[in-house]
Amino acid sequence: MSNSENQHKVVVLLGSPRKKGNSSIIAREIAEGAKSVGAAVESIFIQEMDIKACQACWFCQKPDSDGCAIKDDMQKIFPKLIEADSWVIATPVHWFNMSTQTKLWLDRCFALSKYGDSPFNKKIAIAIAYGDADPYASGAVNAIRSFQDSFRYVGAEITGVVYGSALERGDIEKNEAVLIAAKKLGKKLAG
Questions:
Q1: Does pTM top 0.90 for this prediction?
Q2: N or C: at which end does the chain have fewer Cβ atoms within 10 angstroms?
Q3: How many CB atoms are closer than 10 A to CB 40?
Q4: DSSP string, 1-22
Q5: How far apart are CA 37 and CA 183, in angstroms?
């Protein structure tokens, strides 16, 4: 696409403590798929951000509120999330669910409703890497279900989920089927 104003915008949220971990590799392939059909992609490495836990103060839900009361790096992320057409959320499975970094980010998205009309009207792709061979025993299914429940609640569309088993750093590179599925999801996300 030549007109950047009409260009599909994708924000990739990397929720692993490892910048080049297995879930990030899956997200990279989703991003490459999106780029291949003309999307603009921006990645955010959550581990490097100062994101505090939601304080359950409900300030963001008050009628006269202008958003989240916590002044941290989420204030930089909120506008990017709103401006984007699609989100890619990448997380490893830690202790049978999404990583702490991803959960901190997701909990703070509670405040998004005060940042504009239909802030969750997005296409969402999920990338998950886990250490066990079984997605049930590993907890990957718990992470997937958490995303499904959260985004169903706010009316967002999960366009697809790509997940695979990979324990050691970079192991997911050996799983060609996962990488192909990720690239295909990226094209669908931005198409």
A1: yes
A2: N
A3: 16
A4: ---TTTS-EEEEEE-SSSTTSH
A5: 11
Give the up-direction half-sphere exposure of residue 73: CA atoms within 13 A in the CB hemisphere. Answer: 12
Written as six digits, the tokens of 127 are 């990338």
- Using pLDDT thresholds of 50, 70 and 90, give the confidence band for residue 1: very low
- What is residue 54's DSSP assignment? P
Helix (H, G, I), strand (E, B) or coil at 56: coil
| Average pLDDT score over residue span 54-82 | 94
Superfamily name with CATH number, domain 9-52+68-190: Flavodoxin domain (3.40.50.360)
Neighbouring CB atoms inside 10 A of 101's CB total 22
Q: What are phi and psi of 157, to 5 degrees?
A: -100, 120
Cβ proximity of 131 and 139 under 8 Å: no
Residue-wise pLDDT tens digits, 118-152: 788 999 999 999 999 999 999 999 999 999 999 99
In order of 121, 125, 135, 167, 171, the CA distances from 93 in angstroms are 26, 16, 10, 10, 15
Compute the distance between CA of residue 99 and CA of residue 173 in angstroms, rounded to an integer. Answer: 20
